[in-house]
Amino acid sequence: MNDPTSPSATPDFLNHDRPPVPSLTVPRGVQPFHLDNKPVRGRLVRLGPLADALLSRHDYAPAVAALLGQGLALTAGLAAALKFQGSFSLQAKGDGPVGMLLADCTEAGALRGYARAEALPEGEAPLDAKAMLGQGYLAFTCDQGPGMDRYQGIVAIEGDSLAAMTGAYFETSEQLDARVWLHAAKTPAGWRAAALILERVAGAGGIGLDLDAAAQQDAWETALALASTVTEAEMLDDALAPDRLLYRLFHAEGLMLDRPRPLSYGCRCSRAKLASVLAGFGTDDLDHMAEQGVITMTCEFCNVGFRFQREDMQPAAEG
Questions:
Q1: Does the pTM exceed 0.90?
Q2: 83 or 104, higher pLDDT
Q3: Pick from 26, 23, 4: nearest CA to 299
Q4: Taking residues 20-34, what's their average pLDDT?
């Protein structure tokens, strides 16, 4: 079989070959749940080996990989709460050594992400998310494609962790009581990442009629206290099934498990897509990009370089 990243005799608009990246699905990547007759719902995200497949595509510093792993787990968890067709993304952009952090997830659970980072300053203490990102913004975007409304919420980067930054977003942009726990680390089995998201249900939907406002507040605070006992080791343990972990936390609160959702390796690059990008450049730009007659375009997500013959690239119309 021909290497899809190399120059091909097939016209690029007909050549939809994908790069040699993992074909990997985690069947129970997101486990939604709620507490019976209480104003609490949530999602537990466990990326398992998918985290290692995504994070190991680049030679990230450990702190950067951990931050991106948290972002991937968070994005998968937030996307799973929405009904949409397209992609849901998290983007953090700042003036720190990690200038850009991006993760996105489709409605089917196809997940991808990357970080654009400089060398981190050396020091004894590891940098927190605020120090790595610096001053900037955090954006959550639901993009349903051409002709559809595009929803976006943007907040300033506030808080020392990605979880705290997300909490500030919920509070200021969504007016939603929610709490997030995020963990990512390299284990003996490779990189692992997980998220636990709790949301307080607004109104009376699904709440027992015997729960007055004070009882609802108590149920919410109890759920938060129980969730706060979860450890990084539990969140990242492949041997601890999602339902067992949730049972440990909430079995006394009427835990109800909903249908789990899969997550998969989700880079969507191809020769045809990148060829269409090149088609937008003029002659001078194409000549400048070419080295020994070949233009190489590297996908930022999967870090695979696609090679195109300069002689085959037709420049955009120049007026």
A1: no
A2: 104
A3: 4
A4: 88
Q: Are 252 and 35 contacting, i.e. CB atoms less than 8 angstroms apart?
A: no
> Rounded to an integer, what distance in angstroms lies between the CA atom of residue 168 and that of residue 179?
10
Amino acid in the structure at residue 192: R
273-312 pLDDT per residue, tens: 777 788 788 888 888 888 888 887 777 878 777 788 888 7
Q: How far is CA 303 from the centre of its chain?
A: 17
d(CA 264, CA 51): 10
Of 212, 265, 263, nearest to 53 (Cα)? 265
Q: How far is residue 69's CA from residue 185's CA, in Å, rounded to a whole number?
A: 8
Residue type, 71: G
pLDDT at residue number 161: 94
- The burial of 11, by beta-carbon neighbours within 10 Å (0-12 exposed, 13-18 middle, 19 or more buried), is given as exposed
Question: Within its chain, how far is the Cα of 76 from the centroid?
Answer: 6
140-167: b (≥16 Cβ within 10 Å) or e: bbbbeeeeeeeeeeebebebebbbbbbb
